[in-house]
Amino acid sequence: MVHLEAGEECAAHLVKEISTCYLQLSQLSSLSPSPQINDLFQKLVQLCCYTRDELITEKASVLMHPRIVDITTPLRCLCSDGEFELERYWAEKVLQKESQGEAIATLLNFTYYDNYTDLIRMEMNALASSVTKPRLRKFAVIGSGPLPLTSICLSRLLSEQGGAFVHNIDRDPWAISKSAQLCARLGYTLEQMHFQCADVHNQRLDLYGSDVVYLAGLVGITEDDKQDAISRIARQMSPGALLILRSAHSLRGLLYPVSFRT
Question: Which of 78, 156, 204, 224 is deepest in the core (most CB within 10 A)?
Answer without folding.
Answer: 78
